[in-house]
Amino acid sequence: ARQMAQDILEQLPTTPAIQALLNPVLSGACQAPAPSHLTELHLSLGWDDNVNLGIAIGSISFQTTTQTINYQLDDSYRPISSAFISATGMRQHTTASGWTIQALAGARQLSSYSPFDTLGLQVTGRRPLQVKGAAGHMTLGWAETWLGGQHYRSSPSLSWQSLPSQGLQGWSLQTNIQQHQHHTLSTADARLLQAAIAYQTRPVPQTQISWGAGLMHDQALGQRAGGNRQGHHLQARWQHLTPAGLWHAQWVKHQWQSANAFLPGLMDQQRRNNSDLWVIGFQRPLQQGSFVYLEYQHRNNRDSVPLYTHQSNQLSAGWLVRWP
Hints:
The chain has 324 residues and is mainly beta. It has helices spanning 2-11, 16-27, and strands spanning 37-48, 59-63, 68-72, 82-94, 100-110, 118-128, 136-147, 150-162, 170-182, 190-204, 207-220, 229-242, 245-263, 267-287, 290-303, 310-323.
């Protein structure tokens, strides 16, 4: 019932009277029966101008305590553009005990750079859980990632997110802990702890606006350069429904710095990272349970270590079908 109410909220214009009917469902006060099975298929294709996170400059400089070291970069550091195709399938089942079990498998293949072809598997279990009187959901998850045909990373996770404080609007909280175990580079192993707060509102029935902020502590479990990381994030999202379809735009900013010097003796300062993601897209329903979309993404990653500074642009089009 909550999923159906959320779909109505996101895909159809609503009035205060309709919102009053949906509020008890979203808050958990109404226990209407929901479909016990859900299946999704998602296909997309697109183009990315920097799939390898390359850098455009021809040389970089490292400042030590005594001198500046210049390093010339060969063509392997240059950005590589590529078309891609991706496919994702999802199966969801709701048990009588209240658990929602979801299994997802996806793959992306690049036409010009196979070392970054990806394959992912993810399983999650979610159930309602009240914390100090606040209604919300607890989610247990496990994800496996393959990169370029090699087993790259395993990521177990645990999170809790509250429902908006006023039904369809208001404040919500989220906490998350996730561990990354890298199979090809154990020095990158880490445990990520996050806490965030968000607010969502509907100034008119056809428009939803949300914004939020959060704190992050990234604990290094291996010999990662710079050690632990601490930072924060900001985000804002806008959705607007028109007779032709749904427009959406999003901005996400992440900032963090390492606890220790990045490379003592060569780069004695802490590593600082500042990244922005901009997204704008449009989706149009075809028939019940399916729609097509077009989306553009721009990423800008600035880093005190020049090797990690990069920009990318991605344009994609896709089709999603959901049943029953």
